Amino acid sequence: MIDFQYARASDVADAVRQIAADPAAKFIAGGTNLIDLMKEDVERPSRLIDISRLPLRSVEETASGGLWIGALVPNSDLAYHPLIAQRYPMLASAILAGASAQLRNMASTGGNLLQRTRCYYFYDVATPCNKRQPGSGCSAIAGLNRMHAILGTSEACIATHPSDMCVALAALDATVHVTGAAGARTIALADFHRLPENTPQRETNLETNEIVTAVELPARGFAANYTYLKIRDRLSYAFALVSVAAALELEGDTIKEARLALGGVAHKPWRDWSAEAALCGQNIGGSAFAHAADVVLRDAKGSGHNTFKIDLARRAIVRALTQAAAGTPQSQSSKKIA
Amino acid sequence: MTRAGTSQRSSSTVRVPEKIPVSLTINGFETQLRVAPWTSLLDALRDHLGLTGTKKGCDHGQCGACTVLVDGRRINSCLTLAVMKDGAKVTTIEGLATDGTLHALQQAFIDHDAFQCGYCTPGQICSAAGLIAEGKAKSIDEIRELMSGNICRCGAYPNIVLAIQQAMGQP
After folding, report:
1. DSSP string across B134-170
2. I need a labelling partner for A234 at 20 to 30 A (CA). Which of A53, A65, A101, A298 fits?
3. B8 belongs to a structural domain
4. How many structural domains does chain B have?
5. Confidence (pTM)
6. Is B145 in Cβ contact with A6 (below 8 Å)?
7. Assigned domain for B5 exists
8. How many Cβ pairs within 8 Å bridge chains A and B?
9. Could you tell me which of B50, B53, B47 has the C-alpha nearest to residue B66?
10. For residues A14-37, average pLDDT
């Protein structure tokens, strides 16, 4: 870790002022990803601006029947919050599928959005990586790429976004509230993260001098028919090979509305609106679910070690939609896949 | 070996990092220390305060050996900067026993032989103390899942789960 300065922000405006004054500074909240990356010399901030004491820790109901989640609400508090557990159980399930109890106690809502890929080559400063050092090349495309993306990749980068929470947030139509020198604005969660294209170093549409202040959920939580199915190399405490957030609104056996987003397959939480549209009006069952999977994976492309993910994703989508339709969401403690 | 770094470090061009005062209540005792900004809570405990019960395993938040309780919640002390915890209450493995009586978890780990080499044990016990305080784990499956942030390379997991069940008052 390199030497750096440490400062605390007294309020959101002060945080924005401090970050604008030093382009090499970074905010720190939970620190679970940033401190690790600093130990690896991947992140080398000149200054850490500690925002962990800012008053962004509340979960409140909004006038429109949704929820306002402060950016510093710890992942564990959010997962176990009674309103989340009751009205947005898919989000609770996704959060509890990620990391460990200790890390969830530390990690913040805003930080979860901003965590960086766990691509081995991004972490290994001895190897080329376009995300870490733009223009140096991608070591993963022809390297060990078992964990890597199959959708939305580019010649420059095949890294995945590692979050589980964000996959559920994408499916639930969440909105991110941010504040910068020019004032506050909102970004749809589905537009918050970017595809790699030629600028894999730029992972989100957050500007460098902006701070995430909250995540907002709309009223609809799909609490009756949902699942978060995460497939990984270990039964716990591992990043997803493929994960699926699936939610349905049913009328009898007919699908009135569907939400479908995948994790572990792309540079961002991968929500597919065309697959959702294909499910609408269909009867629940294997053929509709398999067709939706085909739609999601129509442009999927493997890089060798990760090519198995295409078939894994297809099966996981069908299984997740089956769980959601049956109202039997995947348990995150019993590992038996329902 | 002549080390270029040594002479460089003593030259006046290298900035000496400013140490920052930090106040922590550790195992009930108020403690003042001065640390460089990059000092992790783990290194502050072990290297500055001599509390070596908390172990450094991976130093990257992957093994759980460094688990301590901060303001009653279990965290990985290796991924926490000491300066960020100014004013916090920290409980380490050294602070669990009271008046010479082992904490129920410590006794249960002995009763169930819930370790072999013992390196992960302080983290396992502090993590289990956090788990019991959280009150979310009821079944064996839930204990296993919510203890998954603590790796035991000797593989004492079945006995660790039994020990935690005993401390929880489960049969």
Report:
1. HT---SHHHHHHHTTTS--TT--HHHHHHHHHHHTT-
2. A298
3. no
4. 2
5. 0.96
6. no
7. no
8. 90
9. B53
10. 97
